[in-house]
Design a protein that fits this description.
209 residues, mainly beta, six-stranded antiparallel sheet, 2 helices
Length: 209
């Protein structure tokens, strides 16, 4: 982890659930992310012209174990050659714990509660929803009007209907989509997908064909 990386966004400025880092390549674009051996980090953008605004994010980090890292944000500064946009603040906030997950293309830093099993479950659920997105046409749907305009409440009202045939279930994960929200529901060892369409205010279980 102690290296110079390229990160997909400014950590601490935009509060994302996940960040992605890759080794800094030949062409320096986007945001540079440096993790130093003394436990400090620096993120800065790489403007494409001299008139750009330089954004610097700095703080400290702790490697909790091989799979978890915690970041503390100390300082945010903006500067430009014109000096008109210069500013600085010291928020001194705990950004929380992140799960270190390496895939084939990058290292992903994912918000975590520090429990490795929960992290592994989250990754499994993420992949399951991704697979569903790729294969949604292989399912049938039976849309009904949602009773509430809050997605999770609508899904619970829908599943609590005895006609659906599910009981003692648990909503284990969800993902926002352009049409609304996709939910992963677990009953014992079986998983089900439920879609909430916020545009049409409808909800449906996905039935395998």
């Amino acid at each position: 982890m102690f290296d110079t990386w390229q990160i997909n966004d400014l950590m601490g400025v935009r509060d994302l659930e996940e960040y992605s880092i890759v080794k800094m390549g030949k062409y320096h674009l986007g945001y540079m992310f440096v993790l130093n051996h003394d436990g400090t980090f620096l993120i800065r953008n790489l403007p494409q012209c001299g008139n750009g605004i330089f954004k610097n994010i700095s703080g400290s980090f702790i490697l909790i174990d091989d799979t978890h890292i915690r970041f503390m944000l100390n300082r945010i500064s903006y500067s430009s050659y014109s000096k008109e946009d210069n500013s600085e603040e010291e928020p001194n906030v705990d950004l929380g714990i992140f799960y270190i997950y390496q895939d084939s293309k990058s290292i992903r830093l994912i918000k975590s509660n520090g429990n490795l099993q929960d992290d592994k479950d989250k990754m499994l659920y993420t992949e399951m929803l991704k697979t569903f997105d790729e294969n949604w046409k292989s399912y049938n749907y039976s849309w009904v009007n949602a009773k509430a305009n809050i997605p999770q409440e609508s899904v619970k009202d829908y599943l609590d209907n005895k006609l659906i045939g599910l009981s003692d279930y648990k909503i284990v994960y969800s993902k926002k989509e352009g049409y609304g929200e996709l939910f992963l529901v677990r009953k014992d060892e079986d998983f089900h997908y439920v879609l909430y369409n916020s545009i049409k205010q409808k909800v449906s279980l996905a039935y395998p064909r």
